[in-house]
């Protein structure tokens, strides 16, 4: 048990006053370069809808792959739209070419045939299990990423844990407070930055024992931190908040320019609205990476500017390719392309921070080995997990693998899950975030890491 | 349009009646220990707070004057009326909007021909051109038109939620649409989504569940969305090449989401059996056979025997003889009459109308009513609205509004007369709840944990201040007057909210009310 979690921190803090808590610069934020083991970063990306792992890490060395997938197999290396060879047996989808430098630098690894021990082929159950970290148990309400935040030392930043997206995902549900930011991160001013309005609403939402009171406090804290981080140039410590020019004496409750409620940066706002208008929601609110190709650039920028961000999560949908999946090109390739480009930009943008960062990409289950009647694939079982990070022993495809012989498949149709996804996560948490075995037992109750996930 | 005649200036309610909405577990209202079935109360014994609660659950939000209207006829008659929407005349704004736009009443087939690929072909033929550039241009134009159709349908959805006096029907349309969700982001469904809601959902919202299930199963939008249009027996062509084959997508969701529920006791084999039963049910053939007999113009569906698997099947232990289209009706009968379906639907209704974690006694009651009445939704709702559980004061303000409900309730409370709803539609997108845009078949959730989020809460406050300040002119041309709102809402607010509003500058009072924690709940 941790003594003081961040919720309690905020509760106690609220006894003082919100404005005292959030002066011009994040006073709690670690300064850049102040690296210690507990400030290592973790970014988790969930691909909702079950991406076809056999198109990501393609077993081109097994001819059954081509027999079972007459129209959607990705061709062998060297052929048109063929895979990028990884180890003379597996190849990477050609749309993942932007990740090749990391593979070559040995900071990219895959765990093939990983997954959950639970047999469900329901997207929703399987996503829930992957997010709660307790497969098969539906009564678990908190997410493993939230429990992780409870277990690691707090850096007292409202953005230590950061969720990107409009809805808080199950993986972050729980006791620890989680900052959230829109997918399009901006440092725009909002109406609550005006002192009178802000103060009155702070009073309305002063009850820190209520869910709404806490959400409000978290929202304001995250907003101020992001606003500061995204405002260039970085302000010196103890400079007054930007909004302080707007004193009550010259108070005008609403902007002169007839500002609309959601953001006050008139010109910029309309661009963002236009961008948002292009976005289409996807699986459980997660958009397709096509519409969020900039996520890597933005997240890297924010993490560089605010070094207190330690655990980040985002998700992308649109992987449920029952019909016309495509092979080296087509539907799936079109979604992989922006995802790979975004990941590459994230790594590049992180710069030196990449050394301290691990990125995990996962999906609720894999898809049928055999293609279905519609040049697509149905819900399957085992899948590939992707690991990127300065400290990953990359350049390898991990996982127990036999072949695509029917007798080696799960229920004769799917990749088995030979590595428990929690084993991979435990490895990352233990090795990279210095999470103790005792804490791991709180994060993944009922599971014991084998220590062989990446063996 | 909202009828101003129901606004009557009434005597300010006694200020002695404060209800603490923030902490719903502390019930301080009079009579709270004495939970009675409200339908047994004479209308005079029903408090304003109870009517306020009822209105908030049965409608998309209380408008000024609504409490008095309900009081005038009594809540029993009000519930009865709402359960029978056909007895309530539709709002003139709704009927006018529909009358002005042919596309809103077109059949799926007509929509497809007017705004789908055939429209491009027709435009090319008319122009006598076959140049690729012209084709691109034509496609662009048709896409634009299709998007207009979609937008009109989205506007109509908001318009109905805002103005229709058949509020319970609209609330139930929201409930069932999410239960049988399709997404306008998937190709053809962009132009079909409005028709799907109007033809397969709204008419059945308070009828028999089996009819609703059948209507969704026999609509082109659903068959396209969940890929049953692709579900076919595997075949071999003249050259020995295999084509077609099962697609399990719809079969699985039909059991997991639409009927039995994920723990409803079916197996992977049942999924395959049901997929086989459903083979052949899909969209009309194209090309020369586009006008083949057997195409249902109203639903845009077509059963193709050539694609059907005629073998016998066993679904949930029951044998279904291979007979063609009739198998589907048998399967739907089996699913709709299963007690797991009754439980699943009952739980969802109780969760939607009462609390995120609904009382199990209520779920049991509704389950029994479902089984007893042959899945009669109206009978279930009548039981629900008169149940002790529904009226238990602990559930007042227990639900967190989802973004759609929040936006519509703001507009209803301020008597806004929007010129158009683009800003609502933008707002919903920013809140993570684009209209008709839930990509996954489980639909939007209606629980607090799905929607309460720091960032979106701040955006709601931004929306409230935008409405209150008059800066969202399209939505609310006149800044609302606080006095108009305080009559209805003033004494329903928590002590703290009343206190903060009382000391705020007049210009900010409406923003504070609409952005208050009290207004986020219902």
Question: Can you tell me about this structure?
Answer:
- The complex is a heterodimer of chains A (455) and B (522).
- With 455 residues, chain A is an alpha/beta fold.
- Chain A has a single domain (7-12, 35-183, 279-443), classed as Alkaline Phosphatase, subunit A.
- Chain A contains 14 helices and twelve strands.
- In chain A, a hairpin with a 5-residue loop joins strand 3 (84-85) and strand 4 (91-92).
- In chain A, helix 7 packs antiparallel against helix 14 (437-443) and helix 11 (295-305) runs parallel beside helix 12 (331-350).
- The longest helix of chain A is centred in the middle third of the chain and has 20 residues, at 211-230.
- Chain B is mostly helical and 522 residues long.
- Chain B folds into four domains: 4-83 and 400-520, no CATH class; 92-207, no CATH class; 228-336, no CATH class; 346-392.
- Helices cover 52% and strands 3% of the residues of chain B.
- In chain B, the strands form three sheets. A two-stranded antiparallel ribbon of chain B has the order 1-2.
- In chain B, a hairpin with a 5-residue loop joins strand 1 and strand 2.
- The model of chain B is unreliable at 1-39 (pLDDT under 50).
- The chains are: A alpha/beta (455), B mainly alpha (522).
- Chains A and B meet through helix 6, strand 7, helix 8, helix 9 and helix 10 of A and helix 12, helix 20, helix 21, helix 22 and helix 24 of B.
Briefly, what is this?
The complex is a heterodimer of chains A (455) and B (522). Chain A has 455 residues and is α/β, with parallel strands linked by helices.
Task: Record keyword descriptors for this entry.
heterodimer, A: 455 residues, alpha/beta, Alkaline Phosphatase, subunit A, nine-stranded mixed sheet, three-stranded antiparallel sheet, 14 helices, 12 strands, disordered N terminus, B: 522 residues, mainly alpha, 4 domains, two-stranded antiparallel sheet, two-stranded antiparallel ribbon, 52% helix
